[in-house]
Specification:
single chain, alpha/beta, Rossmann fold, pyruvate-formate lyase- activating enzyme, OB fold (Dihydrolipoamide Acetyltransferase, E2P), six-stranded parallel sheet, 12 helices, 21% strand, globular
Length: 472
């Protein structure tokens, strides 16, 4: 009998911190040449910020800088911050302080960088502060702190971008910014309005990633469903024809590249139903997986949130998606304790969960964020009530997850291997996104496996969030 991981109420309520500077990175193992300047990177927050970090490092590599995996080996450190929640801001300030203590020369960028006075109020000695996706300003700050010393015979633009994720999967950002005005969110103030990339540029990047060995593309943006709206869904040259800047067309083309394609941050607009037949078609690589931030179920709470989609027909939409694609995995996040949330409204959410039977669920306790309009709403929920509702929500979602995973015992499925250690292999099914969902563990017959392998397994055991299986 395998030991199962117990449920704990200590589950992270904020976006995970991604600290590539603190982990061994084989892709940075090339010894720097004599005199080559070295830069370190701390990347915090969501995958969108991670993509920004990768772009900055790619540019620095092309200019002749080496990438240091630790503070001591770097001549300066870039801290890419998160500013979504006040707790995330505090974590960013802590990371800046740690970098200053360990290295001394620190350049700050990212979402919190939009609040320079806030940062310098705590850390006045940082060398420079820039906002999100301000790549040129970051490079200028690096040039000032650590002048480049390129060797034109050695330092060439790499064939592929510097990656901070394992080699077998990569995030693919399709747009910046957001046009929504949700009262609890300040992302549009920090990252601006929707700005979609041209479809052909996204597809070309995706094709290069797959050619370089990437097995899974994780499509991200602030609002994936809105992709192309700002471009009026213009046509782009691709292959022997054209492709429209629209999420349906883009998804269909990505599915033909020979890799898994996973969609994140999809708002439940009506045309999302057009994506479901693509996911149900086994001839392409688009996974039957939707990450949809519902946030709540009660119409009055959604109205106070100023959410762009009402919940009235959401259950009907979910039923229609499952009718078209029975194997679809639905992931979502919710906020409990939003200002004015009554016990009846919260109970509505629990009852809605019972009906929706979502596969993967995350939950935040509401907290004020400086600059958010929700701060001014009346009837803020006491902390002890928010904690109680969070516990009840997680207990409900855990029971749903446990039953759904138990139903997979005995089934055969394809999984992707993330890592292989002495005692087993850690894998993910099509239902599991890296970092945020569960895992499938193989603890027998795994010796010949490597990270990035796609293998077929039979599931033989389940816990609340994870599976175990054997290789067929």
């Amino acid at each position: 009998m395998r030991i199962k991981t117990p449920y704990t109420a200590g589950m992270s309520q904020n976006p995970p911190s991604l600290r590539p500077d603190l982990a061994p990175q084989a892709r940075f193992s090339d010894a720097p040449r004599d005199g080559q300047p070295k830069i370190g990177m701390v990347s915090l927050g969501c995958p969108k910020a991670l993509v920004d970090s990768e772009r900055i490092l790619t540019r620095l590599r092309a200019e002749g800088y080496a990438i240091s995996p630790d503070y001591s080996g770097a001549e300066a450190v870039i801290v890419n911050t998160c500013g979504f929640l006040d707790s995330a801001k505090a974590e960013s300030l802590e990371a800046i302080g740690e970098a200053l203590n360990e290295n001394g020369k620190v350049i700050v960028t990212g979402c919190l960088g939009a609040e320079e006075d806030y940062i310098r109020g705590t850390h006045p000695s940082v060398l420079a502060v820039t906002g999100p996706h301000q790549y040129e300003q970051v490079l200028d700050a690096v040039h000032t702190a650590v002048p480049p010393s390129p060797d034109p015979f050695i330092d060439l633009l790499p064939a592929q971008n510097v990656s901070l994720t394992p080699r077998h999967y990569s995030y693919l950002k399709i747009s910046e910014g957001c046009n929504h005005k949700c009262k609890f969110c300040i992302i549009p103030d920090m990252r601006g309005r929707l700005a979609s990339r041209p479809a052909h540029a996204i597809l070309r990047e995706a094709e290069k990633l797959v050619d370089a060995g990437v097995k899974e593309l994780l499509v991200i943006s602030q609002d994936t469903s809105a992709y192309g709206l700002d471009r009026r869904h213009d046509m782009n040259p691709w292959k022997d024809g054209e492709v429209r800047s629209h999420i349906t067309d883009l998804t269909r083309e990505l599915g033909q590249l020979g890799a898994w394609v996973r969609l994140h941050y999809v708002y439940p607009y009506p045309f999302v139903r057009d994506l479901i037949p693509i996911m149900a078609d086994p001839s392409n690589g688009v996974l039957p997986y939707l990450d949809i931030p519902f946030q709540h179920s009660h119409p009055d709470v959604l109205k106070r949130m100023a959410r762009p989609a009402a919940s009235a027909k959401t259950l009907d939409e979910i039923a229609a998606w499952r009718a078209t694609c029975p194997d679809i995995t639905l992931r979502s996040t919710f906020i409990v304790g939003y200002p004015g949330e009554t016990e009846a409204e919260f109970q509505h959410l629990l009852d809605w969960l019972d009906e929706a039977q979502l596969d993967r669920v995350g939950c935040f306790q509401y907290e004020n964020v400086d600059g958010a309009r929700s701060n001014a709403l009346p009837d803020h929920v006491p902390d002890e009530v928010k904690q109680d509702r969070w516990n009840r929500f997680m207990e409900k979602s855990q029971a749903i997850s446990e039953a759904k995973l138990e139903a997979k015992v005995g089934k055969t499925m394809q999984v992707i291997v993330d890592s292989v250690e002495e005692d087993g292999a850690t894998c993910r099914t099509m239902s599991d996104a890296p970092e945020i969902d569960g895992n499938l563990f193989i603890d027998e017959g795994f010796e010949g496996l490597s990270a990035g392998d796609l293998v077929t397994v039979e599931v033989d055991e389940a816990s609340e969030y994870d599976l175990w299986g054997k290789v067929l």
